[in-house]
Amino acid sequence: MFATGIENSVPTIDGGRTRIDEMESCGHYQRWEEDFQLVQEMGIGYLRFGPPIHKTWLGPGRYDWEFADLTFSDLERRNIVPIVDLCHFGLPDWLGNFQNPDFPEQFCRYARAFAERFPWVQLYTPVNEMFICATFSARYGWWNEQLSSDRAFITALKHLVKANVLAMQSILKLRPDAIFIQSESSEYFHAESPMAIRAAEVMNSQRFLSLDLNYGRRVDSEMYEFLLDNGMTREEYHFFLQNRMKQHCIMGNDYYVTNEHRVNAEGGTSASGEIFGYSEITRQYHDRYRLPVMHTETNLVEGPLGTEAVDWLWKQWANVLRVRNDGVPVVGFTWYSLTDQTDWDSALREKNGNVNPLGLYDLDRKIRPVGRAYKKLIEQWRDVLPTQSMCLTVPVVLPDEASGRHAQRQKARAQEMIKLDLAASDPQQNG
Predict the structure, then answer these.
(1) Distance in angstroms (rounded) separating the CA atoms of residues 403 and 407
(2) 146: three-class secondary structure by DSSP
(3) Phi and psi for 136 in degrees, rounded to 5?
(4) CA distances to 70, 123, 279, 422 from 272, in Å
């Protein structure tokens, strides 16, 4: 599955007074038809895309679907498969931020409302990069609640993951063959001295927390104490253990040059640049969760040479092939995003309008060298990979097949499997 995305981050800063809306700053609201045409011209069949949550979700049970109706009907007409990104780093003003305990249940209803309105949609990322969202909002103090404590971090994290789990459950009731591609940042922390080893070990355990909870995996013993010491109750922890959804999931691993960190003796971190790389870190995550994998985000700034982004594309693709040839079932690759972005040079902490040359196209919709390289890569590899894959097919129903007999049979089989899973997990039915 070769993919790209429309950047739809919407965090707030300045105590919630200022919203950073990447769709607005990148011109997508005005140029969405042109953007979708560019996706087609690239030969890309999958698009990470979602309605702007703050403009669509107006209140409990209140929605404005106008923009979603226009865009998703056009994607359906073009037979582009959306990977629907429902919550990307921000919430509508009426919900506040990720400290709000009402967020998970409310978000579950929003996800169900979307799935009811667009029943042909099959692929979802309900909540994007839960670990990063909780870290930037409640540990670094950059976005949304702008807090900086372990308790605030765990509060945000448990709400984000619970929202994701409840959304998956609600969508499966309507679309039993739904597939969830959980885009999450794949991190690693390197100790730069013997005195930093302990701190690095703790951070390397914490990086797994969002996916451990999301997939119903028991966390490391030290992380269990960390969760309980910072406000998670045993009942909340048991909720995650009892809601195992991984059989419906593909693990999305995002990797950038900023994903690896150096840890100093005082426990502080700094950027290390690429040391292990995507293949080694993805193997670590796959060894832990044993799920099919998709490389769901990467990019690099086009620098003064003009070749930096192209070189990074080929490096990432070589890593995908390496980890795949080592037996990890890799099912997709993504350059994120379609166009340049704005203000990621300050991690969206400031609204400066700085254009970051990260896209396949610039903001005038002129193709960049990395766009031409990605188009060529897709043309060369599209027909080779399916016959050599360790995971031969992902049961994706294309938009133009959504009402066909095959799609109906697949949904029926998926519904039967869900019933069997429920029966197997119900102790009363098992005597």
Answers:
(1) 6
(2) coil
(3) -70, -30
(4) 43, 34, 17, 45
Looking at 215-299, which runs of residues are DSSP E strands? Answer: 249-254, 260-263, 269-271, 293-297
Residue 130 has what DSSP assignment?
H
DSSP 324: H
The tens digit of pLDDT for each residue in 298-328 reads 999 999 999 999 999 999 999 999 999 999 9
- DSSP-assigned beta bridge partners for residue 46: 3, 81
Beta strands in 117-248 (DSSP E): 123-127, 179-185, 188-191
Would you give the DSSP letter of residue 89? S
- Residues 418, 416, 171, 386: is their CA dihedral positive or negative? positive
- Reported as a single tens digit per residue, the pLDDT across 95-126 is 999 999 999 999 999 999 999 999 999 999 99
pTM equals 0.93
Domains of the chain by start residue, with CATH:
2-189+203-260+273-396 (3.20.20.80)
For residue 84 the two structure tokens come to: 């629907």
Residue 276 near residue 260 (C-beta atoms within 8 A): yes
Residue 280 and residue 339 in contact, taking contact as beta carbons nearer than 8 Å? no
End-to-end CA distance of the chain: 43
Measured at the CA of 127, the angle between CA 94 and CA 52, to 5 degrees, comes to 50
Calpha distance 136→145 (Å, rounded): 10
Strand, coil or helix: 342:
strand
Cα–Cα distance for residue pair 199/132, rounded to 1 Å? 19
Other C-beta atoms lying within 10 Å of the C-beta of residue 411: 17
Which residues touch 379 (CB under 8 Å, ≥6 apart)? 43
Taking the C-alpha atoms of residue 415 and residue 33, their distance in angstroms, rounded to an integer, is: 35
